[in-house]
Specification:
This protein has helices at about 10-35, 40-45, 50-70, 80-100, 110-135. With about 140 residues, it is mostly helical. It has one domain. Helix 1 (about 10-35) packs antiparallel against helix 3 (about 50-70), helix 2 packs across helix 3 and helix 4 packs antiparallel against helix 5 (about 110-135).
């Protein structure tokens, strides 16, 4: 057991960013696993083709790994955290566009699913952006 002193304790702003990245990483990984495991079961209620669920699930698992690796670094680099904010922002916009485009024959529940997902990703982008600004 180690005792943290003011000199070894991370600054609250760094803790906020690190914690946000960890929560984003774990929630992304869990959600990616759900998409993979439930790909066939989600097809009919959401209108999301099984192959799309699998691709999204694999991409989310990869993203989760990257988020957790960044959060684990002794010093989180601003460039990497800015990249996370950008990827989350682009992902939120892409999910909204996909939900509204008609490219997929989504059900009403499927559209809501993507829009809620976009909102969650946008919140993470905002929190991570806030964590970056607090560091400065």
């Amino acid at each position: 057991m180690s005792i943290s002193t003011p000199a070894t304790r991370p600054a609250p702003a760094r803790d906020f960013l690190r914690t946000t990245l960890r929560v984003d990483g774990w929630s992304t990984g869990i959600f990616g696993g759900v998409l993979l495991a439930g790909a066939a079961a989600l097809r009919d209620p959401l209108g999301l083709p099984t192959v799309w669920s699998v691709v999204f699930g694999v991409a989310m698992l990869g993203g989760a790994l990257v988020l957790l690796l960044i959060a684990r670094q002794p010093e989180i680099r601003a460039r990497q955290a800015n990249g996370v904010v950008a990827v989350n922002a682009v992902s939120a916009v892409a999910m909204i566009a996909l939900a509204e485009s008609g490219v997929l024959d989504l059900t009403v529940l499927g559209v809501a699913f993507l829009l809620v997902g976009a909102a969650v990703v946008a919140v993470f982008a905002g929190l991570e952006f806030t964590g970056l600004r607090r560091r400065a």
